[in-house]
Amino acid sequence: MFEIENHPVKDAIKQRAHINDAQYKEMYQQSIEQPDTFWGNMASEFLEWFTPWEKVSEFDFNKGEATWFKGGKLNVSHNCIDRHLATKANDTAIIWEGDNPDEDLTITYQQLHDKVCRLANVLKARGVKKGDRVCIYMPMIPEAAYAMLACARIGAVHSVVFGGFSPESLKDRILDSDCQAVITADEGLRGGKAVPLKVNTDTALASCPNVHTVVVVKRTGGEIAWNDSRDIWYHEQTDAASNQCPAEPMDAEDPLFILYTSGSTGKPKGVLHTTGGYLLQSAMTHKYIFDYHPGDVYWCTADVGWITGHSYIVYGPLCNAAITLMFEGVPTYPDASRCWQVIDKHQVNVFYTAPTAIRALMAQGDDYVTRTDRSSLKILGTVGEPINPEAWEWYYHVVGETRCPIMDTWWQTETGAVMITPLPGATNLKPGSATRPFFGVQPALVDPEGQILEGATEGNLVITASWPSQIRSVYGDHERCIQTYYSTYPGYYFTGDGARRDEDGYYWITGRVDDVLNVSGHRMGTAEIESALVLHDAVAEAAVVGFPHDIKGQGIYAYITPMHDVEPSPELEKELREFVTKEIGAIAKPDFIQWAVGLPKTRSGKIMRRILRKIASDEIDSLGDTSTLADPSVVDNLIDNRAKR
Ligand code: WTA
């Protein structure tokens, strides 16, 4: 165990860094006092525009509205590829590392241009046009990035669905945004195991009559069914297509993508992001937070199915003409040394991952790390959940050998890009703190009545003014967008997170304050898992809560009241776990199921989740007030029948 202590910026880092502390303070102040001047300058510096904008920003949080760079025209694919070709055509854009350590590929910006144009032409030939929605259900192969950029090139709106989601979840997402084309692969490959993506797609599409085209990448050559009127092979069609395709001029506020994410109620929401502001903030954060310099090899281990993969594998890095590494596999295959071996193999300079991965690798022992070199590493990053200081110090000492500052980046699918973060050359680090706001970001802490709290304090985290990569709407349901993010504390964007601010103004995110779980850095609504469980014939009622889990951060604990004629059994528990996997995906599978004759409810019938959380966390000494329960004896019964660990 390492001592938990503060880590001032080191000289070697400061000398190389784009931004030092004085510059951070000056730029931050300008970004708050004159946001339009600040962001206008950044938009000229970071992006290439076909037509300049008329107005930098306008927003009204009461209506959940924000526009950035209105009237400006640009294309994301042009910014991520074409404009680099004059000087960087033969530079590496993507390094792909396969699941199998013997497989890898290097793709230059010229090759990327060729691939993206060909696929864009294939989509066009199938009738996909500006504004149409395209679903991308892919493994971590370069074609996933080509697919996103091909959509952006022709103005189609992509909706990437994580390859681990079930056919049921895929179907819901395709229907919600009425996608009419799907891009997938025969199978994915993760940790040596095949993932049946085309089979899942076929199952989902049985209920999606509007899908006219499925583009299939041949990844493994595994056996799949074929529908001649709908399915086309990626390789056949792109080989035959032209490698030139003009980039569609898009308005800065035209939609770029939809990405579904869980909330505390109902079905996942299609978070809508637009073109100009999103690209600007993802590119700018990528450059400054990871102190990116030309030639650096940058690796973010996320999946493109999540926002981190969108902003920090594809759009941010490619917009900056960076070398972005894309990894098909998992950190523990063939063994727990894989990440560090990949770092040595490709001489990775920046490594960005999730706390859950760090904790899992830490649990395997230092030897897997120390047997590798890692001297290429300069900057480390984390994202997705609070990092416990012990894991932070291990990452810092063992992985980074005290050379590499750790960027603990706080943000959300809805924020589009990082919001609270250190900068390598500017910020003295405190393990467990995401530290200070990025340029233009105005966080605040509020009490339950929405009063802003000053100084060192704790409260609910809100953002008080618009930022460029802000969520624009929930696809097809703007009312839900207002309801979810802008109605709890009128006038502010509510994050759903709680946080503490210390005497130095540093933020410490404490986690969700709503009914959203964070399991291995994946967001899961408890309501979604409950809805899946009650679909099963044996289940009368279900209540799902989180509990602290050493590796995953949070685990999933389900209380289930069986139907009156059902006899609970270990077999039935197993069946229910598989049932949730089938309905949603393996990431939603409950760790524990507890059979409950009754759930603790108030007299008005509301389940008291606070009590369920305490019992699931084994904190039965601090249950709090149970006097408002309709039947307090339910609690004793639940305590007596806790799931065995
Ligand atoms: C949590 C992931 C603490 C937080 C980019 C947020 C974090 C949710 C951090 C968003 C961090 C993300 N420290 N908590 N550095 N980063 N979170 O939409 O609860 O998948 O609300 O976006 O993850 O998850 P999402």
TrEMBL record:
This is Acetyl-coenzyme A synthetase. CoA binds at residues 190-193, 308, 520. HAMAP family: Ac_CoA_synth. SUPFAM superfamilies: Acetyl-CoA synthetase-like (SSF56801). GO terms for molecular function: acetate-CoA ligase activity; AMP binding; ATP binding; metal ion binding. Residues 82-464 form the AMP-dependent synthetase/ligase domain. Mg(2+) binds at residues 534, 536, 539. Its EC number is 6.2.1.1. Catalyzes the conversion of acetate into acetyl-CoA (AcCoA), an essential intermediate at the junction of anabolic and catabolic pathways. AcsA undergoes a two-step reaction. In the first half reaction, AcsA combines acetate with ATP to form acetyl-adenylate (AcAMP) intermediate. In the second half reaction, it can then transfer the acetyl group from AcAMP to the sulfhydryl group of CoA, forming the product AcCoA. It catalyses: acetate + ATP + CoA = acetyl-CoA + AMP + diphosphate. Acetylated. Deacetylation by the SIR2-homolog deacetylase activates the enzyme. InterPro entries: Ac_CoA_lig, ACAS_N, AMP-bd_C, AMP-bd_C_sf, AMP-binding_CS, AMP-dep_synth/lig_dom, ANL_N_sf. Pfam families: ACAS_N (PF16177), AMP-binding (PF00501), AMP-binding_C (PF13193). It comes from the Bacteria. Residues 24-80 form the Acetyl-coenzyme A synthetase N-terminal domain. Residues 528-606 form the AMP-binding enzyme C-terminal domain. It comes from Aestuariirhabdus litorea. One of its GO terms (cellular component) is cytosol. Keywords: Acetylation, ATP-binding, Ligase, Magnesium, Metal-binding, Nucleotide-binding.
